[in-house]
């Protein structure tokens, strides 16, 4: 088999954004993905394109999120132009609600600290704390007991499933070979590159990118890459379709383009269990009704759990192997927001093999205490 | 049009339901979706909010295509609700709340 430029292990939104970016830059790419019983964080998330709250404690991550959010409109436009798939993307601003006074205080302190730490964020990150009364114009019908929230014009939403579908369609049109149901069992270096062993045979390429989410735990260390990622479960409820509420999205709840409300911002350590629990669903439903009392009569049509992919410090990992040059590891839990960046700046840095130079803050070095 | 199999026609009791305002007698073993399919067929079962016609597909609670108004409550899953004496069933014609 002719050797490709890149093997990408993982066909989620991170792997496919990079595949799309590399293919656009003329690279030959093969993507190896698992089957539908894989954990698939890309298919369980809420679809926020979101800047608020990102990178508190790591300003460079906040900057990257803001840059990516700013690039999203062009990114979405180009994908739609290439594929005809509408991503239901909109950026009309968003609100991160504060459910009590303490949350309102600490949120504002966090954002002020972030802007102190980053000149870019100080100049470009626009946000404002709005009390309940001020919020009612952008969140009509907001419940009486919500004290306020932080509003930012950079925040928005998309349909993450359409995003993934568009990335596949655009990538294939650019010559990317995508292989579903081809789980990688082993990755190893060869004389001229890398080889992946799968039940469907072996695949080789000059370079390899691990975008395997939680799969990094099995595959990363053999190539000198970071395997330390852990699952954080989120549970989601969806209501029946409701009349358009004219409400800005929030991380707690948003109305999708088709009318249903997506409810869910839970964080649990549940191992690899993707299920839902009655207790968590009840607390989500209670919170949703507290936020929008008119949802009390709404019927729920679906619920699911999904596993976020968390690095040890929660920030993205863009890593180049020092022991196996040409092997890279990408891992993050905000693959939707960062998709525009992954397809552009990140893919270019990988193509030019300057990941560590361009994005040193995100290398694996920060996570390692000296082991030897 | 749907018909009950003869072999399924073991003696059952019937209940009276109201479908779009008209009274009908149906076997009490039916679900709302099955009763509507038997009485009226699949055409006209439901209109999606975007205007396209829909009808029950899975009949086991998964596809959400059988949504129907039961006793004034919209968007109930017709395939999961047994009929009951006096039940008022209304097909949804694409109102804004229609799923």
TrEMBL record, chain A:
GO molecular function, one term: oxidoreductase activity
Protein name: Glycine/D-amino acid oxidase
Domain FAD dependent oxidoreductase residues, every copy: 5-348
Transmembrane segments: none
Pfam families per record: DAO
GO cellular component: cytoplasm
Alphabetic keyword roster: Oxidoreductase
UniProtKB/TrEMBL annotation, chain B:
UniProt keyword annotation of Oxidoreductase present: yes
Organism from which the protein derives: Modicisalibacter ilicicola DSM 19980
InterPro entries: 2Fe-2S-bd_N, 2Fe-2S_ferredoxin-like_sf
Highest taxon of the lineage: Bacteria
UniProt-listed Pfam families: Fer2_4 (PF13510)
GO molecular function: iron-sulfur cluster binding; oxidoreductase activity
Name of the featured protein: 2Fe-2S iron-sulfur cluster binding domain-containing protein
The UniProt record lists the keyword Metal-binding: no
Keywords, in A-Z order: Oxidoreductase
């Amino acid at each position: 088999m002719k050797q490709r430029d890149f093997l990408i292990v993982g066909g989620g939104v991170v792997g496919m954004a990079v595949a799309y970016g590399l293919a656009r830059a003329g690279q030959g790419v093969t993507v190896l993905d698992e089957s539908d019983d894989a954990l698939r964080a890309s298919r369980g998330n809420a679809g926020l394109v979101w800047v608020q709250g990102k990178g508190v404690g790591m300003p460079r991550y906040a900057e990257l999120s803001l840059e990516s959010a700013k690039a999203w409109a062009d990114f979405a436009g180009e994908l739609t132009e290439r594929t005809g798939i509408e991503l239901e993307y909109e950026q009309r601003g968003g609100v991160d609600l504060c459910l009590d006074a303490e949350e309102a205080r600490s949120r504002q302190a966090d954002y002020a600290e972030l802007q102190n730490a980053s000149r870019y964020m100080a100049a470009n990150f626009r946000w404002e704390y709005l009390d309940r009364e001020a919020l009612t114009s952008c969140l009509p019908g907001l419940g009486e007991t919500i004290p306020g929230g932080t509003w930012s014009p950079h925040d928005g939403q998309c349909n993450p499933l359409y995003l993934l579908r568009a990335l596949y369609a655009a990538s294939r049109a650019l010559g990317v070979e995508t292989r579903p149901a081809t789980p990688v069992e082993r990755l190893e270096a060869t004389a001229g590159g890398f080889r992946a062993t799968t039940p469907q045979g072996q695949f080789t390429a000059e370079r390899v990118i691990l975008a395997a989410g939680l799969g990094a735990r099995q595959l990363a260390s053999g190539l000198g890459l970071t395997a330390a990622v852990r699952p954080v479960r989120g549970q989601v409820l969806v209501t029946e379709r409701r009349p358009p509420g004219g409400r800005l999205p929030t991380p707690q709840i948003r109305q999708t383009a088709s009318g249903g409300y997506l409810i869910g911002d839970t964080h649990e350590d549940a191992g690899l269990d993707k299920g839902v629990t009655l207790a968590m669903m009840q607390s989500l439903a209670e919170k949703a009704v507290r936020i929008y009392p008119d949802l009390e009569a709404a019927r729920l049509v679906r619920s699911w759990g999904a596993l976020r992919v968390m690095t040890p410090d929660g920030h993205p990992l863009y890593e180049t192997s020092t022991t196996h040059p040409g092997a890279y590891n990408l891992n993050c839990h905000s693959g939707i927001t960062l998709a525009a960046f992954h397809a552009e700046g990140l893919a270019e840095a990988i193509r030019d093999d300057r990941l560590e130079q361009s994005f040193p803050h995100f290398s694996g070095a920060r996570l390692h205490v000296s082991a030897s | 049009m749907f018909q009950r199999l003869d072999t399924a026609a073991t003696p059952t009791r019937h209940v009276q339901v109201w479908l779009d305002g008209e009274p009908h007698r149906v076997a009490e073993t039916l679900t709302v979706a099955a009763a509507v399919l038997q009485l009226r067929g699949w055409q006209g079962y439901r209109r999606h909010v975007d205007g396209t016609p829909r009808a029950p597909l899975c009949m086991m609670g998964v596809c959400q295509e059988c949504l129907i108004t039961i006793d004034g409550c919209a968007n109930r899953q017709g395939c999961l609700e047994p009929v009951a004496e006096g039940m008022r069933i209304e097909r949804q014609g694409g109102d804004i709340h229609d799923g």
